[in-house]
Amino acid sequence: MLLIPCPYCGNRPEIEFAYGGEAHVVRAADPRKEDDAAWTEFLYFRKNPRGDHAERWRHAFGCGRFFNVKRNTYTDHIEASYRIGETLP
Amino acid sequence: MTQPYRLSAGGRIDRARTLTFSFDGKRYTGHPGDTLASALLANGVHLVGRSFKYHRPRGILTAGGEEPNALVGVGRDDAHFTPNLRATQVELYDGLTSESQNRAPSLERDYGAINDVFWRFFPAGFYYKTFMWPRKAWTKFFEPRIREMAGLGRSPQTPDAARYAQRFAHCDVLVVGAGPAGLAAALAAAKTGARVILCDEQSEAGGSLLAEPDAQIDGLPAAEWLKTALAQLAAYPQVKLLTRTTAFGYFPHNMIGLAQALTDHEGERSDAQPRGRLWQVRAKRVVIAAGAIERPLVFPDNDRPGIMLAEAARIYLERYGVLPGRRALIFTAHDGAYRTALALHRAGCAIAGIVDLRPNAGGPWVAAAQKAGLAIYPASTIATTDGRLRITGATIKPIAGGSGQRVSCDTLLMSGGFTPSVHLFSQSRGKLVFDATLDAFLPGAPAEACSVAGSAAGVPSLAEVLASGAEAGAAAAGGSAVSYQVTNAPVAQGGFIGAVPYHGDPGSVRAFLDYQNDVTAKDIALAMREGMKSVEHVKRFTTNGMATDQGKLSNMNALGIMSPVLGKPVPAIGTTTFRMPYTPVPFGYFAGYARGELFEPERRTAIHSWAEAQGAVFEDVSLWKRARYFPRGSEDMHKAVARECRAVRNGVGIFDASTLGKIEVVGPDAAEFLNRMYINAWTKLQPGKLRYGILLREDGFVIDDGVIGRITDTRFHVTTTTGGAARVLTMMEDYLQTEFPELNVWLTSTTEQYAVIAVQGPMARKVVAPLITGADISAEALPHMSMVECKIAGVPARLFRVSFTGELGFEINVPADYGRAVWEALMASGKPYDITPYGTETMHVLRAEKGYIIVGQETDGTVTPDDVGYAGMIGKAKPDFVGKRALARKAFAEQTNRKQLVGLLTDDPTLVLDEGAHIVADPAQPKPMTMLGHITSSYWSETLGRSVALALLRDGRARTGEQLYVPLATGNARVSVVAPVFYDPEGTRLNG
Predict the structure, then answer these.
(1) Is the ipTM of this complex over 0.90?
(2) A18: which chain B residues are within 8 Å (Cβ-Cβ)?
(3) B722: distance to nearest CA of chain A, Å?
């Protein structure tokens, strides 16, 4: 079970969290200006890397907040966690 | 005489007390401190099991958790029975009942042993090839026969009567293994003030020190030093010592799973006390001091009862005061076996000889054996053994060749050296490094915050083991290591991997390397002839190291056999993955408290107890219990639902809608937030008005729906589907926190704060109105799709004028604590109108008659608002809402044959179609037919006196009037496509 550092609450066990998929998938401020290809990319395409991955977690059974985590998908090591709106360290 | 092989003194057993136990119905005695294995050996019992495949008679091979043969079932009755326990780990208690496995009718006479006679026909992988033909025989003949043969122990048939506990724990340093290395590590860590957990799978801490009569540590005999060390540890309040506790799994981020046996050793335990406890320990640092496992030697017929590992025999002697036999032959490539020979010799056991594979073994142990006058056969091997249910002798041959010499013996003790126990380290994904001098894989670079100490790291002598433990413990806790003075503990060296040299045809003999899976050296050779080059393929083809063995005994010998054949050094072949659990853990440990009623929480509404008292039949809707129908007298569901439907259409019905999800959306930007989430327009909705909302996912498909009320300018009462409440709140939070953080909105789940009572039917207002204070609920003041805050029966309420039945209706939201009181007040008020409680089944029928969809029934995650005919609800002027851009994609706009919601009427009005059935144009077309859609809802409509169905149909709206077919098990039903509203299409009744 992962030990996930919630930027608001500190280290907590994985069972308190819900996974939220890849981070930094930006929803365009005005979707009308996006062409179909861009919107399809936004909807369906994700990186799924073997290695470092920026991903969203929600401290569902805690503060309830979404935040971002940089995790290595191969080793499961978490390098950093940071708040929504902050840039990948 | 009982226990003929028990010595009169020595060991850690309590001879003052005698315990009685049974094995296969026969009664024996033993002493506290015994394991089942040591007690059986004390009684001269070696034959304890039959092997998995060939049903060969097998004896006790080891003294620990690596035991492959002595697998037994233990328990006083079926509810307390555990199969496949290792007799070497079962602590003896008075009255213990145990049985052998994989034999019929008895261990001595086993029908399955026929497999052994025909062993040549059952090589590795035989079942992959043999049972291929004829094809049909697989399910009818082969599989049932194989299932009967497979497995070892019998599964208990009654539920486990035991209880299990679970616990989370945190510590600075977790030390796995309480042998000398683990104790030194724990002491060093504890000294710094660190929180330490020290666990060991055995009944008492000490590891190898429990069978150490010679060595002295810091001037004390090992056993005395052990006492002192344990007393020191006990004096630290922040140190926890857990015995009978196996670290079975190493999980990410230093989470270690421990299985602690609590009452198994206490005899016929009370079920009030938990039998075992699962620990999930999060450790800052882990020190693995798991020791090493002695390897068998792979020689022909090395599996007869009486053949044992040399160190195991020494443990039985020193710890339990038990002789393995009267005349022992030693076969070794390691000095440790000389130590065993000397100890047995001293204890009065004849030594038939020491056969050493090594040509010129030397060192203190060999010298001592020579001095004691023991016969040593250097550079020799054992060519074969004899004896059916117990070894009676063996043939010794020089490796160089020449004639063999048979010597008789009743036990053969072997040692191929020691394999460091790297299982946990490997589970943690630490890299293993091959050490050519030790012929062993040792822990290399760790992947987690852990280190390995003692024999598990390949450290040879007791002095170095203690030093490495102290160093690891100190390093883990940031302290400094103390040093230990060890005397009288000469190092034992040597080792061998692979199959021992054999001069005859290796295909004609069986030399076992995985006892549990009956894998022989010949099988490994066959696997390689068949083209398996990777160790993982060989493992799967032969089953070597599978199941509970996980390579404990077999792994290195398999690599030793493969290496010369493949012409590759062992590290180039690599090793198989060590999987958890280290030793088997009963399922109950993992289930813990989550059994029976606690398996899944059950959610009940405030009105549940009333419905229960009325004899309602309940159904599960997500975790909720919902009243499905309220049978009267001998009514079945069909009759009850017909009556409930008539009551709502003609009079008045009452329905518990409390399970609907409810979210309070509050804030200056609440309307704008809903604009962006739901397809509908919310800005112009006036306070006091309701609107039916549709929620899409970002990909444009319907995910939820519900009526939303505007309480004030800045406050909305959102309802969701029963099953979707949590999902919708999470989705709203997601957008609010990550996409629209500029919006000033609060979201609060209020699902359980409100009880919701629906009163529906032409008489509904007459029932509700007399109870209302503070509001006018007349048709003019409170028209359909409006709401008012008022009091009902004195209780504050949000009164919604809304209908999911098509009749005049109210949904009354009151604080949950008052739910039942208001329900009963409504029942009393409705008595003159014969108010009828109805359940979810009637609700489903009534809404289907009106063509109201249920998300998850008419939708399946691939349905757009237009597909279900709700395109008109989309707020056209809105620049954006979740799913809008996706729906505007060309892929949607240009698609012409989407499935659309329609109604279907069967030609035969009494025929109720099967939900999920497919729709075709021509049932006579060749298969596979072109399917046009499927039935989503289908009911008997009591109101219309005929069946009705809703369906998703390709180009459905354009097909109105067409006649299509629904192939059913009972024949092809012809149906007409109609609009999906069967009752009161103008909606006049809603406005009553």
Answers:
(1) yes
(2) 730
(3) 19
